[in-house]
């Protein structure tokens, strides 16, 4: 039995009345909390299995690309380790919980259609890309570098958080170009 549920049962069955729940409402709250912890634990267990599969694929991607991004990519991070790469090969890439998204995330903290990534050639720097992220009215919001955004232009190494998932923008061609673009824009 999961530890959180075990604690609720032990409190209900306690011999001392002072150690028991004092109302049905307390029992319901404790069971809800235990259920939330159980759901989070189950999701984490699934993610560990998925993480192992992704690490194997990620190692293969790094061997193929020699660790250099060929196109702008989103790197899914777990404990700051890249576990999967998502090339941004289309002008619009959607992120969400349902199968109709380009990047599907099985996480209850992610909305069905959570965020959109737009990729287009830079108007200022030839051979470079402008990458923007836009929240699609998600329940929990989209963060860039730990700040909630509605829409934001991304720079290389920016970290996007969707639910409990963190993605880093990789675009080696754009390294050092932020200063140049800032000067051109004035």
């Amino acid at each position: 039995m999961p530890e959180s549920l075990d604690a609720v049962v032990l409190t209900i069955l306690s011999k001392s009345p002072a150690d028991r729940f004092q109302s049905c409402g307390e029992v319901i709250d404790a069971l809800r909390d235990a259920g939330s912890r159980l759901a989070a634990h189950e999701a984490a267990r699934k993610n560990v299995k998925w993480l192992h599969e992704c690490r194997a694929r990620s190692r293969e991607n790094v061997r193929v690309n020699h660790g250099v991004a060929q196109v702008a990519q989103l790197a899914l991070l777990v404990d700051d380790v890249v576990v999967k790469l998502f090339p941004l090969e289309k002008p619009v890439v959607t992120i969400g919980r349902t199968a109709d998204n380009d990047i599907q995330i099985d996480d209850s903290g992610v909305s069905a259609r959570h965020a959109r990534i737009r990729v287009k050639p830079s108007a200022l720097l030839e051979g470079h890309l402008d990458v923007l992220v836009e929240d699609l009215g998600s329940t929990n919001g989209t963060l860039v570098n730990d700040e909630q955004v509605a829409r934001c232009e991304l720079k290389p190494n920016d970290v996007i958080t969707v639910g409990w998932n963190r993605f880093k923008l990789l675009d080696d061609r754009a390294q050092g170009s932020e200063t140049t673009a800032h000067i051109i824009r004035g």
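The longest strand covers residues 81-87. Confidence is low (pLDDT under 50) at residues 58-69.
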